[in-house]
Amino acid sequence: MVTSRIAATGAGIPDQIITNDDLAKIMDTSDEWIRQRTGIGERHISGGEDLSYYTSKAAKQIIERAGIAPADIELIVVATVTADYCTPSAACMVQKEIGAVNAVAFDVTAACSGFLYGVSVADKFIRCGIYKNALVIGGEILSKIVDWKDRSTCVLFGDGAAGVLLERSESAGGILVEELGSKGEDYEVLTARRLAPANVFNKLEPQKECGHVTMDGRAVFKFATKKIVSGVEHVLETAGLSAEDITYFVPHQANARIVEVAAKKLKIPQERFYVNIEHYGNTSAASIPIALNEMNEKGLLHKGDKLILCGFGGGLTWGTLLVQW
Ligand code: COA
Questions:
Q1: How close is the Cα of 316 to the center of ligand 1, in Å?
Q2: What's residue 207's pLDDT?
Q3: Does the pLDDT of residue 318 top 90, yes or no?
Q4: DSSP secondary structure code for residue 232 in this structure
Q5: 273 φ, ψ (degrees, to nearest 5)
Q6: Do 253 and 287 touch, CB atoms closer than 8 A?
């Protein structure tokens, strides 16, 4: 059977660290409020570089670790809502930077679930025999779309990029089970960068435009805990496994309390969930691959380990993948 397995990980993270205390100097907030409500202590914020700088940095690290020549990369998928341009795609910019002249490159947009959607798409191309490998990167420069005057949202987010190389494999393992879902009817719960139609021939009343992230935090909180629980239950049941068979649960890092509540509902010890939000904040599509790369660098992942990756975000969208390392 053909599957796709994760062959390497890598990341590109801004060097600049902004602590909660740094934020408290420029807005009415405090380290105590942010830590208690979210578990966030600091986040990495771009010093001016755009997304392509960090996605390309991640891509270079991944291909170096995988020992693959750029010309041998067949597919590049970048998951993001903060690409440098509407066009070209973030993936085409990575292609140029790394010299992957033979790759097909495009972006997917599913907000914080984006990396999982990207892996799912790449996995299908590989399983169908169309491509032998795929670079899948999740990256965001959220600092350019948050409202720095809105303390209820800007303190939550951070910047960064990370990803994996997926490779065709004929042995058991790789991406085993997935569950993706979308609920467009609730799209207004979490939006960013509304570009309203505006041209000299407009016949309608001007529409509302909003350049920033807007969010009903409590609604997102409830949605997120529900989707982690149902996603984990679904993939475990589909695979005929129990929580004890899973080495690590790797959730999207939006809020440490969301993970606590979900772990409690699932009756899975909190320590089995990998949480690094304290140092990154919510990096949207980048958060799961940043966590995976960090785990890989720490030597926490061993061949055969089963991981459950779960994400949720704007759209609304969600996804859960069962992966064998
Ligand atoms: N610092 C200090 N006070 C703040 C603050 C900040 N950064 N942000 C908001 N507050 C204040 C509010 O103004 C409010 O004050 P009031 O009671 O005087 O009106 C109070 O804190 C409580 O605000 P509330 O929004 O009710 O807090 P909360 O406990 O619901 O926590 C979130 C807010 C955003 C942390 C929480 O709802 C959350 O994490 N939701 C999920 C968001 C998310 O993960 N989004 C991305 C998904 S991909």
A1: 19
A2: 78
A3: yes
A4: H
A5: -95, 125
A6: yes
| Burial status of residue 48 (CB atoms within 10 A of its CB: 0-12, 13-18, 19 or more) | exposed
**Overall residue count recorded for the chain in this entry:** 325
Structure confidence by residue, pLDDT tens digits, 181-235: 999 999 999 999 888 888 889 888 877 777 899 999 999 999 999 999 999 999 9
The per-residue pLDDT for 208 is: 76
Q: How far apart are CA 161 and CA 124, in angstroms?
A: 23
Q: How far apart are CA 248 and CA 301, in angstroms?
A: 9
Closest CA to 277 of 157, 184, 176: 157
Cα dist from 213 to 148, 151, 157, 190, 314, whole Å: 10, 12, 10, 7, 10
Neighbour tally for 103: CB within 10 Å? 23
Residue 10's beta-bridge partner residues? Answer: 163
CA separation for the pair 113, 287 (Å, rounded): 10
Specify the residue with its C-alpha closest to ligand 1, atom 47: 313
Task: Please say whether the beta carbons of 315 and 184 come within 8 A.
Answer: yes
Cβ atoms 213, 157 nearer than 8 A: yes
Give me 124's structure tokens. 């299908």
Dist CA 183 CA 192 (whole Å): 17
Structure tokens belonging to residue 35: 């830590």
d(CA 246, CA 266) in angstroms, rounded, equals 13
Pocket of ligand 1 (CB under 6 A): 29, 33-34, 37-38, 112, 151-152, 155, 215, 217-218, 220-221, 254-255, 282, 313
The DSSP element (H or E) to which 107 belongs, if any, is: strand 104-108
Distance from the first to the final alpha carbon of the chain: 17
Q: Which residues are catalytic?
A: 112, 252, 282
Instruction: Fill in the DSSP letter of residue 110.
Output: -
